[in-house]
C-alpha cells in the first residue's frame, strides 16, 4: 500500500475519535519532541571555536562574576588548548567544543540537583549547602576538563598506539588520555594565567578534578565510571565527591553525540568512522604485520549497526547512570538514545532491502554508511 493510500484510509476512518486521554498523550508527545528538538545541546551542531565555546559557557554559568575570573585571560588560555588539537575528522577542536557545550548545558540544567549531591555532610545525617563559590570552582573544573580531555589526540586508538609502539606515547603508557593530562600539568599550567585569579587551594582542586576526570574518559574505564553515580552519593570526602561527579559528567558528555538529534548524531558517527577507517589504512600501510579490527576496516564498514551498538553499550548506560545525579539531562539523553536507536534500525532495514535487490541483480555489495 502506498503511503498516500494509507493516509487516505486513516483520514477516512470515522471510528477514530480524539478522546481527552488521546489528546493528552498527543500534547505530552509534542512537548517532549519540542524539548528534544529545541534543546541547545541537540540542535546546534557545535562548530564554534573551542576557545569561544568555553568562554560562552563560563559567562552563562556566571563563573567570571562569582570567581572574579578575567574573561580575556580565559579566552587567551583556551586558545592554547585549542592549538593542541589537530584537524582530525572526529578528535579535532570541534569535538572538544561539543563536549564543553554538553558539560555546560548539564551543569546549568541540573544545577540544583548537582548542588544537593555536592552538599557538605556534617555527620549524623546533617548536611549544609555547598557555597556558590565552591560550586563555581567545580563548574570551572568540569569546563576545563572538557576542553582539555582530548588535547594532542593522535586520532589513533590506544590499542593501536601500543601495538605499533608509537614512540611519542611511550612515556604515557600508550594512552592518549594520559598524554592530555601530561600536557595539561606540565605545559599548560605553566603558560596559563586565568587560574591565577583563584586561591592556591582552589587552583589545586581544579587541577585534581581535571586530571582525574580526563583519565576516566578512556573507554577502558567505562564500567568504572558507571559505578561512580552510586559511589558519589555514598562518598564522605567532599573533594573525592567532586572528582567522581566531574568524571561522570565528562564521560557522558564525551559520548553524548550518540543522543544528539538524528541529523547531527549521524554527522558525528560519520566523522568517527572516517577516523576509524583512516587508522585501518595507516595500520595496513605502516604495520602490515598487525591485524586490522573489523571496525577499522572500511571494506567491512556497517556504520548503522556500529552506531546502534555504540548507543546500546555506551551512551544509554551512561545516561542511565547519570539519572541519579542529573535527572533532567539524563531524561533528555535517553530520549535521544531511543530516537537514534530507532533511526539506526530503520536505516539497517532499508539498506538490507536495497542489498537484496542488488544481490538479485548481481550488482555487488553496497556501502553501509550513514
Ligand atoms: Zn573525547
Automatic annotation (TrEMBL):
Keyword Transmembrane helix: yes
Family annotation (Pfam families): PDEase_I
InterPro entries (UniProt xref): PDEase_catalytic_dom, PDEase_catalytic_dom_sf
Keyword Transmembrane helix assigned: yes
PDEase domain residues: 1-370
Assigned keywords, A-Z: Hydrolase, Membrane, Metal-binding, Transmembrane, Transmembrane helix
Transmembrane stretches, start-end: 20-37
Family annotation (PANTHER family): CYCLIC NUCLEOTIDE PHOSPHODIESTERASE (PTHR11347)
Name of the featured protein: PDEase domain-containing protein
Organism of this sequence: Tetradesmus obliquus
Amino acid at each position: 500500500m502506498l503511503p498516500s493510500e494509507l493516509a487516505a484510509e486513516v483520514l477516512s476512518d470515522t471510528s477514530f475519535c480524539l478522546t481527552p486521554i488521546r489528546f493528552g498523550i498527543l500534547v505530552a508527545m509534542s512537548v517532549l519532541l519540542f524539548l528534544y528538538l529545541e534543546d541547545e545541546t541537540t540542535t546546534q551542531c557545535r562548530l564554534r571555536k573551542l576557545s569561544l565555546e568555553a568562554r560562552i559557557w563560563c559567562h552563562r554559568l556566571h563563573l567570571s562574576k562569582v570567581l572574579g575570573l578575567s574573561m580575556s585571560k580565559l579566552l587567551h588560555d583556551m586558545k592554547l588548548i585549542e592549538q593542541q588539537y589537530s584537524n582530525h575528522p572526529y578528535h579535532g577542536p570541534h569535538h572538544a567544543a561539543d563536549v564543553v557545550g554538553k558539560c555546560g548545558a548539564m551543569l546549568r540544567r541540573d544545577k540544583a540537583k548537582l548542588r544537593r549531591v555536592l552538599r557538605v555532610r556534617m555527620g549524623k545525617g546533617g548536611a549544609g549547602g555547598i557555597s556558590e563559590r565552591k560550586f563555581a570552582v567545580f563548574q570551572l573544573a568540569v569546563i576545563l576538563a572538557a576542553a582539555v580531555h582530548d588535547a594532542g589526540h593522535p586520532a589513533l586508538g590506544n590499542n593501536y598506539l601500543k601495538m605499533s609502539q608509537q614512540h611519542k606515547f611511550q612515556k604515557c603508557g600508550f594512552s592518549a588520555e594520559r598524554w592530555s593530562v601530561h600536557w595539561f600539568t606540565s605545559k599548560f599550567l605553566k603558560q596559563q594565567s586565568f587560574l591565577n585569579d583563584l586561591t592556591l587551594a582552589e587552583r589545586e582542586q581544579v587541577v585534581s578534578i581535571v586530571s582525574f576526570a580526563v583519565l576516566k574518559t578512556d573507554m577502558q574505564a567505562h564500567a568504572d565510571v558507571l559505578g561512580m553515580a552510586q559511589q558519589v552519593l555514598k562518598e564522605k570526602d567532599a573533594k573525592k565527591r567532586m572528582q567522581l561527579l566531574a568524571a561522570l559528567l565528562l564521560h557522558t558528555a564525551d559520548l553524548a553525540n550518540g543522543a544528539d538529534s538524528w541529523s547531527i548524531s549521524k554527522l558525528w558517527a560519520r566523522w568517527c568512522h572516517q577516523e576509524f577507517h583512516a587508522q585501518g589504512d595507516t595500520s595496513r600501510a605502516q604495520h602490515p604485520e598487525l591485524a586490522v579490527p573489523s571496525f577499522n576496516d572500511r571494506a567491512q564498514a556497517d556504520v548503522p549497526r556500529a552506531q546502534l551498538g555504540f548507543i546500546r553499550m555506551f551512551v544509554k548506560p551512561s545516561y542511565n547512570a547519570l539519572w541519579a545525579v542529573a535527572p533532567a539531562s539524563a531524561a533528555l539523553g535517553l530520549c535521544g538514545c531511543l530516537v537514534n536507536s530507532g533511526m539506526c534500525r530503520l536505516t539497517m532495514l532499508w539498506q538490507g532491502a536495497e542489498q537484496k535487490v542488488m544481490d538479485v541483480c548481481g550488482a555487488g555489495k553496497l556501502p553501509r554508511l550513514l
